[in-house]
Amino acid sequence: MLREIMTVSTSTDDLIRLSEVERIDLLKGYAEQDAIFGSPNPRYKQCKVYCDRYLDIRIQLVGTDGLTDADWDLTIF
Predict the structure, then answer these.
(1) In the Cβ-directed half-sphere of 30, how many Cα atoms lie within 13 Å?
(2) Please, which domain of life does this record's source organism belong to (predicted)?
C-alpha cells in the first residue's frame, strides 16, 4: 500500500500563523511519517506530543520487540 506523503511549508512566517491545534497536528504528522520510516527526528525528542505519537505508531507497526535504541530513547520524554 502506498501512502501519500504530505508536504507542508514550515517557514517561520507560516508557522507563526498556525494555531496551537494546527501546530500539534503538524507535529503528529511528522511523528507518523518518521514512525513509518523507523527514524525518529532528534529535533523533536523532547516534545511529548511528537514522542507519544511516534511511539504509538511505531509500536503498532513493529511491536515492542521491534523498537530500536533510538525508539526507546523517546520513552524518557
Answers:
(1) 19
(2) Bacteria
> Residue 60: enclosing H or E segment and its boundaries?
helix 48-62
Residues of the domain holding 44: 12-76
> Is 4 among the domain residues?
no
Hey, what long-range contacts does 54-57 have (CB within 8 A, 24 or more apart)? 57/31, 57/32
* pLDDT tens profile 19-54: 999 999 999 999 999 999 999 999 998 999 999 999
d(CA 72, CA 5): 25
Is position 7 within any domain?
Answer: no
